[in-house]
Amino acid sequence: MVRFDKKLPIYILLPIMKRMQDRPKRIIRTWFLLCVIGIVLLSVSCQQAEKAVKAKGYVVLSPELAEIIAAIEGTDNIIGRTQECDYPPQILSVPVVGNFGKVNKEDIIKLKPDLVFASSLEQQAIGSDLAKLGIKVVTVYPKTISEMLEGIITVGTAIGRETRAKEVADTLHRSLELTRMMTNSIPRPKVYVEIYREPLMSVSDKSFVGELIELAGGDNIFAVLERDYSRIKAEDVIKAKPDVIICYSQETAESIRKRLGWQDIPAVKNHRIYFEKDIDPDLIMRAGPRCHLGAKRLFELIHEVKY
């Protein structure tokens, strides 16, 4: 006996019951089977259409934004990148459209992207040119931890992965706050970060690197500079007496020791000079999702403990 759902309206049930009385059971079973097959095929077709809509192509001009897209599982849609976009490793097979400060507009146009992700003042002009050609440009330039977390949501919204972006941002925020909490009741060693040698350059507290140093329990020796990443004087480093030096200027520990007046700096005397091999600059110089790893590594170096 065929049972009907009593919730079905009578105007639907009556025609069906009438047809059942007029047709053999074999025909009814065939008709029912065909309906089920049709529904399945329609569902599959809709899913494929949805995937086709989401399968957009992105050109990424900033390594931070490439890492954000990767973190929210959008790497497969990246069809173009600048030379500096080198993480995650699978992105290295994607065509290059120039470098961070000099992007080839024609190469981007040939790729016919649905979206171009740009960053910073250096890329403002290329972004404006592409927008005039009808190419949608999303500009995200995070300079602080807070702006980076907001940037993850912005990128996620742009590529239809807002839920995943929020998950990543929330997890990252919790991880960073955990590191911050671990520094509440311990001393704060003074830290000097050298990002260039000639001219000598360092970071201010307002820079992304400076903020990570403070979060990890260090005291950046340059609280205020002319810019976030700015020229400094060697005598100011000597006067500040940093306990820790992080050097990204391609120098060696020996060459730093030979600098005039640097022999008495605590970091030099105590052999607490760290280089790229000790902490990957991309973990703290890039305002991206891997910064929580950078914060943990900074904590280990600054406090000489295992996280």
Given as residue ranges, the uncertain stretches (5+ residues, pLDDT < 50) are: 1-20, 43-55
Q: Gap between N and C termini, in Å? A: 68 Å
* Number of E strands: 12
Count of the separate structural domains: 3
CATH structural architecture of the largest domain: 3-Layer(aba) Sandwich
Total helical elements: 13
Largest sheet geometry: 4 strands, parallel
Shape: globular
CATH class of the largest domain, named: Alpha Beta
What does this structure look like?
This protein has three domains: 1-32, no CATH class; 58-178, 3-Layer(aba) Sandwich (Rossmann fold), CATH 3.40.50.1980; 188-303, Rossmann fold, CATH 3.40.50. The protein has a four-stranded parallel beta sheet, sandwiched between helices. With 307 residues, the chain is an alpha/beta fold. α6 runs antiparallel to α7 (162-181) and α7 runs parallel beside α13. The protein contains 13 helices and twelve strands. Residues 1-20 and 43-55 have low confidence and may be disordered. A hairpin with a 2-residue loop joins β3 and β4.
What tags apply to this protein structure?
13 helices, 307 residues, Rossmann fold, 12 strands, disordered N terminus, globular, 12% strand
